[in-house]
UniProtKB/TrEMBL annotation:
Superkingdom of source: Eukaryota
Pfam family, any one: Mannosyl_trans3
GO biological process: mannan biosynthetic process
InterPro entries named among the record's database cross-references: Alpha_mannosyltransferase, Nucleotide-diphossugar_trans
Subcellular location: Golgi apparatus membrane
UniProt-recorded name of the protein: Alpha-1,2-mannosyltransferase
C-alpha cells in the first residue's frame, strides 16, 4: 500500500477525501439517531405495496442457467470429496477471549491428531477443488451490478425473520431481500403476499436440488453458503434471520472497505481455534492466534464480481462442513459451524478481505437479586468508521465514536418469536432484555428495544395465522400483547 502521509506535512493534509467521507458518515449517523423516531404500534408498508416487485429489485425465480451450473458444481464437489473421515471422538477447544489474548500469544492446540496420510488426502482433495475454481467461476449466473440482502429462513425462523425485515424497513432501507427456504412448505401467503410487500422474495432450495441427482441433504449451518451462491445479487449483505439492522445497510455496499476489498467480516468474542492441520491442508502459512479474532457470521459482505472463487471455496468448506471443515476450523469451540469458513476461504486463495477490528459489544440485563450479567444481544459496528480509524490513525475519528456507530444487533439468545418469547419475559424475566432505556438511548439514539418488541407484537397479532410454525399455537397475540404492556406501558 502506498504510503499516504508524510509526518512532516501540515496536519491539514490529513483531511483526505477518505477522512472527509468518514466524518460525513459519522455526521449522518448522528443526525439519523437524532431525527429517526419510528412510533409504535405499526409501520406503514413500502410505497410500492403490491405483490409485483418494483423495477430493478426482485423478481420471481432463480437466474437462468443456475440448475445447469449446480449440475457442474455438484459433480466437482463429488469428484473432490475428502477420502478420509475425521476421528469420531468429540473434542472441544479451550475458550480464550480474544480481548484478553496478549500480543505474541501463539498457542494453537492440535486436538485432532490426524494421521499424516489423512492430512495428505485432505490436502490433495482441497488442491484439486481449488484447481477447478477458475473455470467454475466463469459460469456462475448472477445479475452483475445488483445489490441486495440475502438471508435464510424455514419453519420456526420465518416469524423471527419477519421481525428482522420490519426492523430493516423501519430504517428507511429499500434494498431488496432474497430469502432462501429449504422447501416450499410455508403457507402461500408468506411468499406470495407478505414478503413482496417488504420488497423480499422466496428462493426455494429444493427447486435446484430436486432437479439434479443425487439428493442433497444439508443442515442449517450450510444453508447460508447456498443462499449467497444461488442469489441473483452480485454485491451481497448476508444477514441471519435473527439479526437486526440498526441503520440503512445500503451504504455498507457502496463505501470502504467493501468497495476496494469486496469482502468484509466481523469478529466474535473468542480467539481463533483452527487446527494446525487446516493450514497444511489449504497450503497456507499458519497465522498466530493473536492476529485476529474468530468470526461472527450473523452479517457478512461479499462481491461476486471480485470474489466468485472465494464464494465457491466457501461453499466447498460448508458442503463438507459437518463431516470435515467445521471441526478443522474450530475444533469443537463455541459456536462451531459455518462461521469460520468465510475468512478461511479468502485467506486460502490469498484474496482481498477486510475484518472489522472493533470488538463485538454485548447487550443484556441483570436480575434484581443477582450480580451475574445475562448477555442476550451482540452489537457489531460500522466498518467504514473502523476502516478509517485503522487505516488513517486519525484522532478525529476516535474509538469512542466507532463504539457509538452500531450497525447490527444479533438477537441470538432470546429470539423474537412472539409465540415463545412471551412465555419468558413478563413471567420468568420481568425486565427489558437489553438493559435500561437510558443506556440504549445513549448508544443508539432511540429506544431500539421498544421498536423490536413493537414489531414482535405486530407479527404476533397481525400475522398470527400466517405461519405454518404457529398452526397449533393459540393465544399468541394475547400473550405477546401482555408482555408489551408490562414492559412499556
Amino acid at each position: 500500500m502506498v504510503k499516504m502521509f508524510n509526518l512532516r506535512r501540515s496536519k491539514l493534509v490529513l483531511l483526505t477525501p477518505l477522512v472527509a467521507l468518514a466524518l460525513l458518515s459519522l455526521a449522518w449517523l448522528q443526525l439519523n439517531r437524532k431525527t429517526y423516531r419510528p412510533q409504535f404500534p405499526l409501520i406503514k408498508p413500502l410505497a410500492n405495496d403490491s405483490t409485483t416487485p418494483p423495477p430493478n429489485t426482485v423478481s420471481p425465480g432463480y437466474q437462468p442457467g443456475l440448475i445447469e451450473f449446480w449440475d457442474t458444481l455438484s459433480q466437482a464437489l463429488i469428484e473432490t470429496a475428502p477420502k478420509c473421515s475425521l476421528p469420531p471422538e468429540p473434542i472441544q477447544a479451550p475458550i480464550n477471549s480474544f480481548a484478553n489474548v496478549k500480543k505474541g500469544f501463539n498457542y494453537r492446540p492440535d486436538l485432532l491428531k490426524l494421521p499424516e496420510q489423512d492430512v495428505d488426502d485432505l490436502r490433495d482433495a482441497h488442491s484439486r477443488f481449488v484447481a477447478k475454481l477458475p473455470e467454475l467461476a466463469l459460469h456462475l449466473p448472477y445479475a452483475k451490478g445488483t445489490k441486495g440482502i440475502v438471508t435464510t429462513a424455514s419453519g420456526d425462523f420465518v416469524p423471527i425473520l419477519m421481525v428482522s425485515l420490519r426492523m430493516l424497513r423501519r430504517t428507511g432501507s429499500k434494498v431488496p431481500v432474497e430469502v432462501l427456504m429449504e422447501r416450499d412448505d410455508e403457507k402461500t401467503e408468506i411468499c406470495e403476499s407478505i414478503l413482496p410487500k417488504l420488497n423480499a422474495r422466496c428462493l426455494i432450495l429444493s427447486e435446484i436440488f430436486d432437479a439434479i441427482p443425487p439428493k442433497v441433504e444439508i443442515s442449517r449451518y450450510q444453508l447460508k453458503a447456498f443462499a449467497m451462491l444461488f442469489s441473483s445479487f452480485d454485491e451481497i449483505l448476508l444477514l441471519d434471520a435473527d439479526n437486526l439492522a440498526m441503520e440503512q445497510p445500503e451504504h455498507l455496499l457502496s463505501t470502504e472497505p467493501f468497495v476496494s476489498k469486496g469482502f468484509v467480516s466481523w469478529p466474535d468474542y473468542w480467539a481463533n481455534t483452527a487446527s494446525p492441520h487446516y493450514y497444511t491442508i489449504s497450503s497456507q502459512h499458519m497465522p498466530s492466534p493473536d492476529k485476529r479474532a474468530s468470526s461472527e457470521s450473523g452479517q457478512f459482505l461479499i462481491s461476486k464480481t471480485l470474489h466468485t472463487p472465494t464464494l465457491l471455496l466457501l461453499l466447498y468448506y460448508n458442503y463438507y462442513g459437518p463431516t470435515h471443515y467445521y471441526t478443522l476450523l474450530s475444533q469443537g469451540a463455541m459456536g462451531q459451524g459455518d462461521k469460520e469458513t468465510y475468512l478461511a476461504a479468502a485467506m486460502a486463495l490469498n484474496s482481498s478481505y477486510y475484518t472489522v477490528a472493533m470488538n463485538v459489544a454485548t447487550l443484556g440485563f441483570r436480575f434484581s437479586n443477582e450480580h451475574e450479567f445475562k448477555g442476550c444481544g451482540t452489537v457489531q459496528h460500522n466498518p467504514l468508521l473502523d476502516y478509517s480509524f485503522r487505516e488513517l490513525h486519525n484522532t478525529t475519528i476516535t474509538e469512542a465514536a466507532i463504539k457509538n456507530a452500531p450497525s447490527f444487533i444479533h438477537a441470538q439468545t432470546y429470539k423474537m418469536d412472539a409465540s415463545q418469547i412471551g412465555d419468558t419475559f413478563g413471567a420468568e424475566i420481568n425486565m427489558r432484555m437489553w438493559g435500561p432505556k437510558e443506556g440504549i438511548m445513549e448508544k443508539f439514539g432511540r429506544d431500539v428495544e421498544k421498536e423490536v418488541w413493537s414489531e414482535t407484537l405486530y407479527t404476533g397479532c397481525q400475522l398470527e395465522n400466517s405461519f405454518r410454525a404457529w398452526e397449533n399455537k393459540t393465544g399468541v397475540c394475547k400473550r405477546i400483547g401482555g408482555v408489551y404492556k408490562f414492559l412499556f406501558d
